[in-house]
């Protein structure tokens, strides 16, 4: 925290607020279960990471989920869904950030966003199998699915949903990135000066 300037802290606060509002504007995708909602709240976190570094992106993810938990609550009483959203966001922005740092071109950003989408889809599938779905069944007092049922649910629902969500976020971000690239580079240069 000591390394973050006042401008960075204010920017992280503003981007966290924008991310929280975007989180409220979620919507379901018809072929997937209704509780899987798409939102674009990871995009401000990605912007924060690209300008101020990965810690800033993680902070935006954390703050938006804390805000949402305290403002809207949780079905389970504990923030299982918010923890899943936080982890999914981090799994999207960190690979995107690190790959883009190596390939600072438009093609590099496209490759980075695809990698972030794939990373989020695969790791969230594994984490849902071992952590998040068992936590939901525990806290909601629901009967647990069998191993094959859980695998089928993840392969047919969660894996493709997270990939589609990543692709949608990538398309929207690339539209923004085309216009914001110069401004973001100026912010990075200002930060390092």
Q: Describe the largest sheet.
A: 2 strands, antiparallel
Shape: globular
The CATH topology is Arp2/3 complex 21 kDa subunit ARPC3
Helix and strand content put the structural class at mainly alpha
The helix-strand sequence is: HEEHHHHH
GO molecular function, one term: riboflavin transmembrane transporter activity
Function: Probably a riboflavin-binding protein that interacts with the energy-coupling factor (ECF) ABC-transporter complex.
Protein name: Riboflavin transporter
Organism: Mesobacillus subterraneus
Describe, in short, the structure shown.
This is Riboflavin transporter. This protein has 193 residues and is mainly α. It has one domain: Arp2/3 complex 21 kDa subunit ARPC3 (Orthogonal Bundle), CATH 1.10.1760.
List the helices and strands and how they pair.
Elements: H1 6-24, E1 27-28, E2 37-38, H2 42-52, H3 54-72, H4 80-102, H5 106-139, H6 147-192
Antiparallel strand pairs: 1-2
Helix pairs in contact: 1-2, 1-3, 2-3, 2-4, 2-6, 3-4, 4-5, 5-6
